[in-house]
Amino acid sequence: MATDASYGNALAGGAQTAPSRTALQIVHEWVTTVDHKKIGLMYIVSALLFLVVAGIEALLMRIQLAVPNNTAVSPEAFNRLFTMHGTTMVFFVGMPILFGFGNYLIPLMIGARDMAFPRLNAFSFWCTFFGGILLYLSYVAGSGLAGAGTAPDVGWWAYAPLTAAPFSPGHSTDYWTLSVLLSGISSIGSAINIVATVVSMRCPGMKLTRMPLLVWLYTVMSMLVFVTVSPLTAAQIMLMFDRYLGSHFFDTQAGGSAVLWMHFFWIFGHPEVYVLILPAFAFANEIIPVFSRKAIFGYPAMVAASVGIGFVSLSVWAHHMFTVGMSAGSNTFFVLATMAVGVPTGIKIFNWLATIWGGRIQFTTAMLFSIGFLFQFLVAGLTGIMLASAPFDWQLGNSYFVVAHFHYVLVGAILFMLFAAFYYWYPKMTGRMMSEKIGKWHFWLFLIGFHITFDLMHIPGILGMPRRIYTYEADRGWMIWNLIISGGAAIQAIATIVFVYNLVWSFFKGKVAGPDPWDAWTLEWAAASPPPPYNFPQTPVVESRRPLWDIKHPEDADAYYE
Amino acid sequence: MATSQYGLLTQQPLEPWELPSRGVVGMLCLILAEAAIFLIFVVAYIFYEGKSLSGPTPAEVLKIPIFSTICLLSSSITVHFAAHALKHNKTRQTSAWLAATVALGTIFIAWTGMEWYELIYKEGLTIKTNLFGTTYYSLVGLHATHVVVGLLMLSLSLAFSLLGWQTEKHYNRLEVLSLYWHFVDAVWVVVFLVVYVFGR
Amino acid sequence: MLVLLIDSANLPQVIHGPTSIFSPAGTPAHSIFSLSMLVLAVTFCVFLIVASLLTYAIIRFREGRYKGEAEEPPQIYGSNQIELSWTVIPILIVVMLFLASARVIFTTQDATKPASSLDVVVVGHQFWWEYRYPKYGIVTANELHVPVSDSKNPEPTFLTLTSADTDHSFWVPRLAGKTDLIPNRVNSMWIDPPDAGIYLGQCAQYCGVQHAKMLIRVYADTPSQFEQWIKDQQKPAVQDASKQEGREVFEHNACISCHTIQGTVATGTFGPNLTHLASRDTIASGSVPLNAKNLREFIDNPAHFKPGVLMPSMHLSNHDLDAVTAYLMSLK
Ligand code: HEA
Ligand code: HEA
Ligand code: CUA
Ligand SMILES: [Cu+2]
User: Both ends of chain A: CA-CA distance in Å?
Assistant: First the structure.
């Protein structure tokens, strides 16, 4: 049996000592890099910056909503806040951070030296990054350089005809379309890169049936990007034609249809949420087995379920439109299609459960976040089922119940899995462990803040509180809930500060990790931490799904069972 | 070095290991994404058919572009021959076929230009006029943009070929480009049917 | 069936309120409510089962219980039988929930319209509601009057919904689910409040700056009240000679280009119809109660109560303001 050291050294190459360089040289190196790891890190760091910005926007909204008839921010400012918060979180936090992890991990996991198209990769990153910057430039330049600046205030769906020139004069909406368009181009570029890498760059022996589940899910996610982000891109082009060339796609005064935009947006928007959740599932598929010390249960079922989710999710978009007055027949169809997604998703939950079952669960911070994810995703999925029942949605739609549902997924599932991913792969990326002690603080604080905020948020929804209102009447019985919810948001902010502190502290003071701190099984742990630019000195060859397991346990190797 | 029978350090791949070209895979992905974009424009066109509040209508102003369609479709064949010739390193033939492709594509785009000129100045139909103008110019324009991009790439390839810089080794690139060109042609078939045949 | 026994009265008190979806009044809201209880019960059971299994596994298989055992646990790769069972059971649940939902969808959306029903056209504006009663020739704003309707005397109100500008959504949680008002499109919904009283709600589709203050008040009137209300509304505007000065101020300002007052030169339609303004309880779509003080403040500076409102300030002199306020207050 090979010892840790022998396979580590064999594939990781010797330690490298970098000659000291000036700051300018370092910046130059990062700006011009085409290395998938550096690009991945840049994605992650830029997404974290935007997370803090959008998080602060959320805090401002929560301050305003804490008590009725509050005047902390003006109505106009509030409308900009939720638009910017939603847009930033989805397009400039969610997408980039997931692509960041994908970029970093996929080549390492399939034993490749880089992504298929390194330059396209760099192009995609800079597109997203400048798209985000452009979005925020609107705050100073939204009404043209002469006028006072305004950020877009049309909501993250930008429903027509609110975006038409008569209703949103000035340039704020143009900033919105342009930056979302940039983000879309970037996503399509990244997705092309991921698929091409997975199809064409796998190391010898890495059959499709041996790929880590993370790689599988990223592939499914990328395929979804092609068929969903493209419609958004098309719709943005139409909107720009409307605004700049005077065409009438969404101009209701010239016979255009407001509902058409809704369809186009949600044909993108619904699968988009699965684009966001699939990478979170992907992290769970790697992290949960390692800390349960068991192989993932039902690998083929997991792959099939992901592909199934991908397909079904293409036919459910109109569940966001149950209240626009579709025929009873269409509503019924979309109820069925939407609820059907629960089946493959359930398969995933049950397989994770079965993976834990009979294991030896190690409660590292990464695992704690994953456990939180399991429970929270379960709840979020079930509130999704409630919304999917169209008549129930006629009541709940556009209320705070929906806001609670989707934050339960976006924060309780995706953000939790992202935190788990940070704790799990940080050692690989920096060579140092994150502090488990600070990590536990982070976990418990965030968990408490999360539940105070988003559990209670269902209640004002049931009590009839619509979303996107800058203030509310005092006599509705919503106040007490909103007050506590805002308190929970503050706890989340503190937890986020603890997390950022942990990132920085561990970078300098964390325990040195070595190549394989978690005693894990996939290829990335065979490379040095952090991996050298070429990843592996020799191209690895694999013979099973868990190559490192086989080395550590030759008597019980996976390869025997294939 | 540690070697185990089952493990990643085995040096010899146990079976021959060959994967598809990443260029082709990348292009197929791009085509999938582009197809989705076109689909949305086509849906918008069909959705708004006959919903314009004012004229002119497609039946009044559109003529079926048979000649240019034949040109564009045959350019798919010529580009195929160009790639085929390059595979066998017949560079002279490659240049000839590429030149033919560029010429056919140019005829197509010139015809579109003329059509637009007539529509705008004779019929007074612009993108602002009505929903037909809006959807027509967007859909046909989107396709024309793709033709122009393709023509630029093809011309570049032709130039390289004439200069003798393009050899057998670059077959893969020309193959990728020809995939794109086939896609542009296929889209035209859809646009042609939707706009000129069923839409009139 | 157990679910049907759950009456809204048995729910904990916190879940009730003036706009709670769990205090239904009327058929559409009630059928949604029963469906919600079924969906809640089923999803709660799913939650209970899955969450208990997870909790059990996490406690039972924690590492601490295996201290000192160096071995890794046995590796299990999967089982097709188990996969099959947890595919089939959810499918059955989904089919059940789907059928229950479909029933309510069809009974609500495709309900037949009794001859006794009332028709009201609702037009959404940024940021107020216009209500037209075609049969009675009435146009009013912001406060919707409908007759109560009970099983002996069914008199449901059918709303025809459209919009003059952007999307809106009509939502009175205790009466029915919401339906959007979309420009260039006509939607419909119906309500049948069983008890007299005021039902509150508000616009539920983001429609611009003042989406938050686009409130709805539905007055369910007894048959006699309703008849009286109709009669009052059908009259032309009150002509009170002592308020003549205010009327002149109104007619000589831009007010008339946006507002209608029946029997005067004012025929604008951009803003609410003011013919019987003083018969309403609130102004600016429910933002503030209607009284002379609030009205004067509103006309002086509409953005005071409702920043972003589409009515500009006319910069009237104090004198004119008083006059116009007095005039409008007389429009019973
Ligand atoms: C990553 C994000 C994510 C994910 C994964 C989901 C998952 C689901 N969502 Fe959600 N959703 C959003 C993000 C997400 N959603 C967002 C952002 C919005 C609002 C956007 C906006 O308006 O701004 C939204 C809005 C939204 C609506 C529209 C509400 C409205 O505006 O009126 C609906 C309605 O059907 C819905 C349903 C569902 C369903 C059925 C699922 C399902 O996929 C859930 C499936 C999971 C389970 C069911 C749990 C596990 C299964 C089992 C344990 C098996 C057994 C269970 C059964 C058989 C029931 N979602
Ligand atoms: C990934 C997506 C994501 C994430 C993570 C979040 C996170 C949060 N969101 Fe949001 N949200 C959306 C996506 C997301 N949201 C979307 C798509 C919408 C719809 C928009 C629309 O309607 O158009 C929305 C809308 C939305 C609303 C509804 C607004 C409305 O309808 O009027 C609210 C209200 O409470 C809210 C709150 C929060 C809170 C409290 C968090 C918290 O979890 C945030 C926690 C993080 C922090 C608090 C940051 C930490 C801050 C620091 C470390 C800095 C500290 C320094 C200083 C204070 C100086 N979000
Ligand atoms: Cu009207 Cu919101
Ligand atoms: Cu959805």
Answer: 20
Chain A residues in contact with B15 (beta carbon < 8 A) = 205
Task: Determine what percent of chain A is predicted with pLDDT higher than 90.
Answer: 81
Chain A interface mutation, best of B6, B28, B51, highest count of A Cβ atoms under 10 Å: B6
Q: How many CB pairs under 8 A join A and C?
A: 273
Give the SS3 label for residue A93: helix
Nearest to B19 by CA among A112, A111, A199, A118: A199
Contact A403, C118 (CB under 8 A): no
C72 φ, ψ to 5°? Answer: -80, 155
Is B54 a residue whose pLDDT tops 60?
A: yes
Q: What percent of chain B has pLDDT over 70?
A: 93
Looking at residue A147, what is its pLDDT? 54
Task: Tell me what pLDDT residue C116 has.
Answer: 86
Which domains does chain C show, CATH number per domain?
118-234 (2.60.40.420), 241-328 (2.60.40.420)
**At what angle are helices A436-456 and A365-388 packed, to 10 degrees?**
20
Nearest to A89 by CA among A133, A132, A124: A132
Could you please report the per-residue DSSP string of A221-247?
A: HHHHHHHHHHHHHHHHHHHHIIIII--
pLDDT at residue B59 in the model: 87
Ligand nearest to the CA of A409: 1
Residue B11 is predicted with a pLDDT of 54
Q: Which residues contact C68 (CB under 8 A, 6 or more apart)?
A: none
pTM for this structure? Answer: 0.94
Q: Over the stretch A154-212, which tens digit does the pLDDT of each residue have?
A: 999 999 889 998 888 888 899 999 999 999 999 999 999 999 999 999 998 899 999 99
Q: Examine the pLDDT at A276 and tell me if it is beyond 60.
A: yes
Q: Which helix (H) or strand (E) holds C53?
A: helix C27-60
Domain ranges of chain B: 21-48+68-197
Q: Per the CATH hierarchy, to which homologous superfamily does domain B21-48+68-197 belong?
A: Cytochrome c oxidase, subunit III, four-helix bundle (1.20.120.80)
Contacts of C68 in chain A (CB under 8 A): none
pLDDT, tens digit (0-9, with 9 covering 90-100), for A280-301: 999 999 999 999 999 999 999 9
Residue A19: burial class (beta carbons within 10 Å; 0-12, 13-18, 19+)? exposed
* CB within 8 Å: B29 and A195: yes
Task: Write out the DSSP string of A420-488.
Answer: HHHHHHHHHHHSBPPPHHHHHHHHHHHHHHHHHHHHHTHHHHHTT-BSS-S---GGGS-HHHHHHHHHH
Tokens of C73: 């646990």
Q: Which atom of ligand 1 is nearest to the CA of A90?
A: 17
Res. B5: pLDDT tops 80: no
Q: What is the CATH number of domain A37-559?
A: 1.20.210.10
Q: Are A476 and C19 in contact (CB under 8 A)?
A: yes
**What pLDDT, in 10s, does the model give residues C217-242?**
999 999 999 999 999 999 988 888 88
Dihedral angle over CA of B90, B94, B95, B96, nearest 10? 100
